Amino acid sequence: MSYKDKKVISIGAVSELTGLSVRKIRYYEERKLVFPERTDGGTRKYSFNDVERLMEIANKIEDGMQTFEIKEAERKALKKEKVRNQMLRGQLNAAFRMRK
Amino acid sequence: MSYKDKKVISIGAVSELTGLSVRKIRYYEERKLVFPERTDGGTRKYSFNDVERLMEIANKIEDGMQTFEIKEAERKALKKEKVRNQMLRGQLNAAFRMRK
DNA sequence: CGTGTAAGGAATTCTGACACG
DNA sequence: CGTGTAAGGAATTCTGACACG
């Protein structure tokens, strides 16, 4: 796991990095778009990946997309990727069998 | 500037990452071995580079080195590097003049 | 729906000092 | 010298709610 995945950034720093209000950042979590970790005391900790993600989300929101649409678009993108991977694997297996 | 240089990690998170007590971390700053930034409110913010640096410092301390020795060793290493660069530049210049 | 804000409380961090060795 | 700790205070963050639209 790289530095980009370490959950170590407090919400205040995330707000500085992204330019988003802490209210927005917490709201996007409520809508299941980001998943910070928590300290024992309950304060949120984000990774640089989360920061990048939040900036993408902010862009989409600005474009008028709603939070549930963002989630849905991701779901579909994921599904598409899975299908693609399945196909690739199928092709590879077929090619491999041909060689025997 | 990469993620490793962004000063975004609070002292508590640094303590978790390094295993050092916050007392130690603050002390190494007092001895001019690390240089966190501060928020407007005065809370320290470290980078991943600072975290790596602190772990190296901790190793040297464990080996019995004192803080001022660590600083001195660094000063010397820096100087040595400068001299080396000077020499390299000199060689390159000489070689370049030969070609004319 | 997305976001601001005031409210009250809890977690986090800060500094300067004393202690020990 | 390097580090722990108790002390008092300030900065940061948390949640749930009301507001507006």
Automatic annotation (TrEMBL), chains A, B:
<keyword id="KW-0238">DNA-binding</keyword>
<keyword id="KW-0804">Transcription</keyword>
<dbReference type="GO" id="GO:0003700">
    <property type="term" value="F:DNA-binding transcription factor activity"/>
</dbReference>
<dbReference type="Pfam" id="PF13411">
    <property type="entry name" value="MerR_1"/>
</dbReference>
<keyword id="KW-0678">Repressor</keyword>
<keyword id="KW-0805">Transcription regulation</keyword>
<dbReference type="GO" id="GO:0003677">
    <property type="term" value="F:DNA binding"/>
</dbReference>
<dbReference type="InterPro" id="IPR000551">
    <property type="entry name" value="MerR-type_HTH_dom"/>
</dbReference>
<feature type="domain" description="HTH merR-type">
    <location>
        <begin position="8"/>
        <end position="76"/>
    </location>
</feature>
<dbReference type="InterPro" id="IPR047057">
    <property type="entry name" value="MerR_fam"/>
</dbReference>
<protein>
    <submittedName>
        <fullName>MerR family DNA-binding transcriptional regulator</fullName>
    </submittedName>
</protein>
<dbReference type="InterPro" id="IPR009061">
    <property type="entry name" value="DNA-bd_dom_put_sf"/>
</dbReference>
